[in-house]
Amino acid sequence: MSLRKAAVITAGSMGTALASVLADNDFRVILTTRTQEHADEINRDRQNRKYTGDFRLTENVGASVSMEEALSGADLVVFAPPSHAMREVARQAKPYLSPTAAVIHATKGFEPETMKRMTTVLAEELPQIDPGNLVVLSGPSHAEEVIQRCPTTVVVAAERLDAAEEAQDALINSYFRVYTNPDVTGVEVGGALKNIIALGAGLSDGLGFGDNAKAALLTRGLAEIARLGVAMGGHALTFSGLAGVGDLVVTCTSKHSRNWRAGYMLGQGKPLDEVLRTMGMVVEGVKTTKTTYTMSKQYGVSMPITDQLHEVLFAGKEPQLAVGHLMGRVRTHEIEEIADAFGEKWIL
C-alpha cells in the first residue's frame, strides 16, 4: 500500500521534527530547503545537522529545493517558516498546492509589517484553501524533544472542527498527543506572545534575580498575553491551556528555548546585535516584541512587561532600570487585574 504524502515547508528545527512525527505515522514526507547542499545532506546522510544535530531521520523523510516536487500530490502540507517569511513561502507554494490538501502551520509569531496572524497571511496568499480549514498547531513542543520522541502534548485549532480533527488524526501517536480547539485567534496569540515573556525570563536569569522574580514574570506575563488575546477576539480559557500557560512555562524555563537564551545574554550585558549573531537562528520574540508593543497601543491594552522589554531591546534602556520601573508601578489589587486579563466580572 502506498503511503500518504506530506510536504513540510521549511526544513528548520520544528519543520524537521514534525516531518519525523508524520513519517512515524506512515506519511512519505518531503521537506523543502533553500539550498541543494541542505537537501543533499538530508537525502544522503538522513540528518539535518544545523537544526536537529545528530538525529537520524527515517527513510520516509526526504528533501527538495523544488516547491513543485514537494507539493505535487501532497495530502497534507505543514508550513513552519519564520513568521517574517510566511507570506513569501505561501506565494511560492500557491501554484502547486492542491485545494483539497489539509494545511497546518506551526509558526509562532505575527507578520512584522502588517501585524497579521499567520492564518490570516495564509488565507490571503492561498485563496484555493477554505480559510475555515486552515489549522494552527501550538503548545509546549521544543523541536529538540519532539524529534527525540519525548512525550509531548500540543493543540491544533481551526474554525471548522473537522479540519482540526483531520490534523489531529494525522499527527497523534504514542509520544505526540494532540488536542483540538476552535479558538484560532487565542492559540495563535498565545504561541506568539509567550516568546516575549521568555525573553524577559532569560533576561531576569541573566541578571541573577532568581526563581521568585521569574515566577512573578510568568504569572504577570500570562495576564498580559490573555489581556491582548481577549481584546483580539480570543477566548480567555485558551490561555489557561496548552497554547497559553503550557507553552509559556516550557519556553521560559528550558535550555532549548532560543528566546530564553537570547534574553539571558541580554541580561549579561551583551548588545542585541551580538546576541542575534551568536544565536544564528531566528529569535521570534524580538520581532514579536516590536509588533506587540504597537498592537497594545492600538487595542488600548496595558502590557507593562512588553513595554519595558521594548525599551530594553530598541531604545537602549538598561535592564536593571526596566526592572525598577516594573517593581515601582502603582499598587493595585491582584484579583482585579486577573479579572481584567481574562474578561471575567468579579463582585468582591
TrEMBL record:
One of its GO terms (biological process) is glycerophospholipid metabolic process. Sn-glycerol 3-phosphate binds at residues 108, 139, 141, 194, 247, 257-259. Residues 6-162 form the Glycerol-3-phosphate dehydrogenase NAD-dependent N-terminal domain. Pathway: Membrane lipid metabolism; glycerophospholipid metabolism. It holds the Pfam family NAD_Gly3P_dh_C. Its EC number is 1.1.1.94. NAD(+) binds at residues 143, 258. InterPro entries: 6-PGluconate_DH-like_C_sf, 6PGD_dom2, G3P_DH_NAD-dep, G3P_DH_NAD-dep_C, G3P_DH_NAD-dep_N, NAD(P)-bd_dom_sf. Keywords: Cytoplasm, Lipid biosynthesis, Lipid metabolism, NAD, NADP, Nucleotide-binding, Oxidoreductase, Phospholipid biosynthesis, Phospholipid metabolism, Signal. One of its GO terms (cellular component) is cytosol. Substrate binds at residues 108, 258-259. GO terms for molecular function: glycerol-3-phosphate dehydrogenase (NAD+) activity; glycerol-3-phosphate dehydrogenase (NADP+) activity; NAD binding. NADPH binds at residues 13, 34, 51, 108, 143, 258, 282, 284. Its main location: cytoplasm. It catalyses: sn-glycerol 3-phosphate + NAD(+) = dihydroxyacetone phosphate + NADH + H(+); sn-glycerol 3-phosphate + NADP(+) = dihydroxyacetone phosphate + NADPH + H(+). NCBIfam families: PRK00094.1-2, PRK00094.1-3, PRK00094.1-4. HAMAP family: NAD_Glyc3P_dehydrog. Belongs to the NAD-dependent glycerol-3-phosphate dehydrogenase family. Catalyzes the reduction of the glycolytic intermediate dihydroxyacetone phosphate (DHAP) to sn-glycerol 3-phosphate (G3P), the key precursor for phospholipid synthesis. This is Glycerol-3-phosphate dehydrogenase [NAD(P)+]. It comes from Paenibacillus hemerocallicola. The lineage of its organism: Bacteria, Bacillati, Bacillota, Bacilli, Bacillales. The gene is gpsA.
